Every structure is written in C-alpha cells, then in structure tokens.
UniProtKB/TrEMBL annotation, chain A:
The lineage of its organism: Bacteria, Pseudomonadati, Pseudomonadota, Gammaproteobacteria, Oceanospirillales. This is Response regulator transcription factor. Residues 138-203 form the HTH luxR-type domain. The modification 4-aspartylphosphate is found at D57. PROSITE patterns: HTH_LUXR_2, RESPONSE_REGULATORY. InterPro entries: CheY-like_superfamily, Sig_transdc_resp-reg_C-effctor, Sig_transdc_resp-reg_receiver, Tscrpt_reg_LuxR_C, WH-like_DNA-bd_sf. GO terms for biological process: phosphorelay signal transduction system; regulation of DNA-templated transcription. GO terms for molecular function: DNA binding. The keyword Protease does not apply. SMART domains: HTH_LUXR, REC. It comes from Nitrincola tapanii.
Amino acid sequence: MKSTPSPVIWVLDDEPIVRQSLRWLLESIDLQVRDFARAQTFLEALEDENPACVLLDIRMPDMSGLEVQQLLQTRMPHLPVIFMTGHGDIAMAVRAMRAGAWNFFEKPFRDQELLESVQGALRWQEEQLEQKQNQQSFLRCLQTLTPREQEVFDALITGKTTKQCAAELGISTKTVDVHRFHLMQKLGVDSIATLIRRALSLGYLKER
Amino acid sequence: MLRCQILIRLITLLSLFSAGMMTSSSAQPLQEIKPIQIGILDWQHTVDFQKHWLPTLHGLQSALPHYRIELLPLNWQEMDLALQTLALDFVITNPGHYVELSTRHALAPLASLQHFHAGLPLHQVSSVLLTRADRNDLQTLYDLKDQRIGAVAAEAFGGYQLLLDELELAGIERSSWEKQVEFLGFPMQALISKLLAGELDAVVVRSCLPELMEEQGLLYLSDVKVIAAKSVDHYACMTSTPIYPGWPFARTLRADPIVTRQVARALMAAEPAVFGDSYSDWLPPASYQSVYALFERLRLGPYAAFPRNPISAWLYEYRFYLIFACGLVLLSFLHQIRSEYLVRQRTLALEQETQARLQAQQDLALRQREVEHLSRVTLMGELTAGLAHELNQPLTAIHNFAQGCLRYYDKEDEILLKQRQALRETTQQIVQQADHAGELIRQLRRFMRKEDGVTQCVSLCRLVEEAYALSQSALSAQEVKVDWERPDAPDSLQVNLHPTQGLQILLNLLSNALEAVVKQPIEQRQLRFEVYQQGQEAVFICSDQGPDWPIEHEAQMFEPFYTTKSQGMGLGLSLSRSLAERQGGRLTLTRSKGWTHATLFLPLTAVAFEEKA
C-alpha cells in the first residue's frame, strides 16, 4: 500500500483565500492538493485513481456543496466528503451527515482536527480499497471452483455439517471433506468460520 | 323775605325818629338843620336806649347846633343793611362787630368809648372763667376736661369767644371742649347763680361782671375764683383772657368830611358824662388790631371764610377732584404694577418655555441619535450572521497559513530552505488577511459609533459599494442575487452627507429588500441596484421582487414603529426618511411590475453639479 501514489485532496471553495490557505496547510503534511473554485470544473477534473478525499464548502455560488455531494455519491461512493461552512447551521450539518458525509467543520476550524479527519478519511478509504481488492480476489477464486466444489461451498456457508452436505449431495462424507479441503485451499481460508465471514461480506447469502 | 322785613322796619324807625327830632327842634329853620344819623348796636332792645346813650353824646349835639343828632338802635342785620344803603353817617358798635363790618363797609374809627362804673372799666372787653371757690381741683384750663361749663351763647364775643381763643392757644381741642359747654342764654347773672347752686362746674362770663355783682350786693367774690387768671396792668377786674378795646365810634362812607371833623373834635372836647357812680367819655381811637388777630385765630367775622389751614381747606374744597385724581393715579399705579407683574410673569413664562423648548430640543436630538444608533445596532444584528462569515474567512485563512508554517518549521533544514520563499509569501498573506479583518472591524465600528452629524462630500457609488460589502454575506447566505451595473464614472455623483447616516439609510434599504425577498422562492430572490443622476440630484434605487403590498400603505410604512417583521422595531424606514430629509434628500417607496422600488434622492454637491454641466 505504501507504494501506492500519494493521496490527493480535492478542495472546492469559492473563496480563493480559503483555498490557498488550505493548500498550504495540507501540503505541509505532504498531501497533494487540487483546488477548484467552481463545482463544474471540479467534477470534470475528478479522477478515481488515488486515495482521495474531498473538502467541500457548503455555500457556493453556482452549485451548493450538498448538490455536489449527491453527484459524488452516485459517481464515487467510496470518496469521503468533508464539509466546511462559515455559517454554523445544524440542520444543514444533519442533512450532510445523513447523506454520508465523513465530517462537518465550521469555520474557523482547528487545523489539527481537520487534518486528523482528513487522514482518517484517507485511512478509511485505503481500507475500503483493500477490502474491495480482497473481495475481488475472493470472487476470482470462487470462479476457479469446480461445480461439485461450488455445491459444497454453497452448502457449507449456510452452516450445514459435512454429514448434511453428504446427504444432500448424495455423496460420501469423505468426498465432502476432500472437496472442502480443496475449496478452502483455492479460496485461501484456513477455517469454515473465515469462509463464512468472507462469503457474508460479499453479500453472498443475500443473493441466495 | 327776611331782608325785606328788616328794610321795612328800618325805614319805619328812621321816619319815626326823624319825626320825633323834628318836633323837638322845630324852632330852628328847617333847611338849616341837617340830620346826623348814628347807628348803635342794640340787639337786646334796651328799654332805656335813648337815656342810655344820649348823655354820652350830648356834647356832640351842643357842638353841632346845625345838625340834628339821630340815634338809631339797630341789631346786626339792620346795621348791615343800613350801611349797605348808606343810611347812616356814623356807627357805634362793639369791637367785634366793628371788625366784622369794617370788612364789608368803609368804616374808620374816630374815637373809642371809655366807661367806668364804680371804678370798673366796663368799656373794655375780656372774659373770665369762674368756678366756686371750693373747687380746688380746677386750676387751669386743662383741668376742665369732662366738667360742665356754662356760657350764654356761642356767638357771644365777650361771653364765650374770647375764652375759646384762649383754649385754642392752650392747645385744647375745640371740638371736645364744645361738647361739655351748655349755652343757657342771657342774662349772665343767671350763670353765676347756677354755678353757686352747683349745677355747673364752671361758667364763662364777661370780665368785671362779678365785681359789678358784688358792688350791687349780688355776689361775694370770695365765693368764686378765677380759672387761668391773667393779670393785666391797670385793669381792675379779674380776667382769664387778654383785654380788648372798647366800643368804637366810626364814620361811614356817607359821613361828610367836614361834619366828621367837627364830630371828632366835639367828641374829644366833650366833658365826661357822669351819672352817679359811672362816667363815660370818648378817647382817641384805640387799635383794633388785637381784635382782628383774634378773629383771624378764631376764623370769625371777616375770617370766617378763610380756612384755618389754607392747604387743607383747598384740599377739602377740591376733595372730589383730588379723590378722583388720586383714584386715577392709584388706578394707573395699580395698572402699572399689574402690567409690570404681568410682563414679568410673561417674561418668566417665556424664559421657562424657551428653556423647556431648548431642553426638549436637546432631548429630542439626543433621543434621535440614540434611535439612530439603536437602529444601526439592530441593522447590524440583522447583518451579524453575514458579518461573522465575513470575519471567518480571513481568520480561517490566517489560522491555516500559520499552522502550515509551523509544520514546515518542524521539518529538516533542507526542506525548509527550499520552502523559504513560500513561507515568506504565506506570512505576507497572513498579514494581508489580518489587515482585511481589521479593516472590517473598523468599518463596523465606524458604523456603530455615535457620531455627530459632520457632513462630507462623498461619492454615492462608493457608499453603495460599502453598504453592499457590509451586507454581501447576509445576502449570499440567503442566496440572494444582486444585479448591480456600476456606472462608468462612479465618483462623479458626489453628495454632501454624513457618511455613517448615508450608510445607515442604504443598509436599511438593503436590509428591507433582503427581508422582502427572503419570503420568496430562491429563483425570485433578486435585487437590483441603480445609481444615476437626475437633474441636480443623485438617485439610488434599490429594487426587489419581494411580495406585493398595497400602495396605500406607503405612508404607513414610513411611520415609526410600523413593522411587518417579527424582529424589528419598525424604525428603519421612518428613520431613513428623516435622515434623508436631514441631508436635504427624499425617500420614496413605489411598486411596479412585481418590483418594489425604494428610491433615495440626494442633492448633488455644487461642485459635482458644475463639473457635470
């Protein structure tokens, strides 16, 4: 992960001085900053590559921060959004948080808190990315299973015992054990419990 | 009527005597014998008048054989009338009467009568005040207070008036004295009888009467004594008053000078007439000056008309005019005092009124300033949310810049050296932002300060710009869009006004417009500013698309405390209008095509106007 490109902080605020100062602050802790005055240019420039985080001003002339957040939700749900506002407004804060904002800051804010929040967001995103990768590899592994192994896997994750599986599939318990051993090897898990957790995290059971 | 009767009697008398005389001297030729008529005062109608007087004048008849001497007994009124009609040649009367007559008729004394009886000088006149010898308490005139005093008559010269003079000279009040005097009439002897009988405490009688009565055996002088006795040289009788001369023989205007001369000579040459104990003769005329003086003092006879005190008499005579005049003076004086008082009252009232008005004006000015200030504070309150944001920007920026710097300082020197320029620029930014915040605060303070109305020449556009800057954040917070096309030469519209008050008007209008549009949906939240010149005035219009309001409410909207806002005092518009009017401008509120226009007219400064022209 450390070899991944340095995180990018997207700053969207109509006040140039705020942008400038945020850039200075964020760069001082070696973060890459890309700032925009208008939502439109920001949305055009936005890339979904690096670990990133968005600092959004709620009140902007052409498009409000909440509108931008909505757009981001559909486009990049894993991109954490941190709101900044000069007008302390609880209702607005609640709205933003409900819509999935990472945090909400009232200007003037303490830089330490903002930076910690930013770093927290980045960490969370990294975890998200990691998890996503894990899931993807898990899915890839699932596709390598034989049809019989697949059947055994389906039975196992519903919590059935070896005997029940054997009875259901009409095979011997010994054969079930062999299939189980193989599929666990393919999926890279060392226990049934891990297997079930992985399957659950993928929402596998729901599909059923 | 009385006068006629007297005249008839006089004529009768004259004719009677003439007839009598004629018969007595019929032996002489008629044409040679001329009558000399002598009037003699006889008010008591003496019975033996002729007998009484003829001896005294017998020398006269013998000295003037060619004249027939006629003696006429006349009372006062008859005498006066006879003199008036020139019916007498000569007059014999008492000194008092003589003095009185002499003022009305031309009389000159030729001789004075001298008459002694038993050595008593009966011809001279004076009064004596008697009391019983045993009345030791009565010594002087002052002791007579509250005593019963008897006298014959108030008019009696020797019997009363002489004493009255003494009293006055002694300073005794005449009016109080007169109350205790009883006038009992003649004869005088009766008075003495009453005194001795104890009916009276004192009596006034003619001098020599007591001596005469003693001589006749009617009185013992030891039974009586004199009060306030006076001793006069060569005067044999007791007296309480000075002595006045005896009866004069006076000529009238009718008397022929030659006859008068003969009469005078005859009187002086005549032998004294003697009867028994008494004798009488004529002496050269005595001075009657003392009688005149007495009369003057007593305001009698000729002096009766003369007032005792001329000034007081004059005052008394003209008392009605004087009272009237005094009344007038008093009235005018009172009027003067009253008008003075009224003037003073009015002046005082005016002064107080002026004072009160001044005070009220000062109070009003103070109150006005307070209201203005309060209104500004309220206005500021309305804009506070925006201002907080306005201040937040630079503060946030400063904080971020500074914190960033601190983090850089913690890095290795190598990196720090590379960032040196950036650090410097950032620090510069910090300074700029701090200045910006400071300026904002100053602006606010300037606006909030209670300033006196010092007017300045300011550009209306700049003022609008400032008001806009102050309210911008409030406007953007409510997502209100402002459409302002700034004029090409913003400094050309110079107006003379107090900047704070001007700003207050503009902020009020902006705040009102903002409040109006906030009620509308976001797409209608729009304001439009216009600044232009119209004639000699600079015009600023703030238009908004706020909700409609009835045009007839315009006047009401400018009334103080009229408000449609939940949090307003309703002073904004009324105050703005009065402020505008104080700057010589106007403020109107109109509505057309869904827009409300608040229009501020301000007079351009002369300089600005000339430049334009």
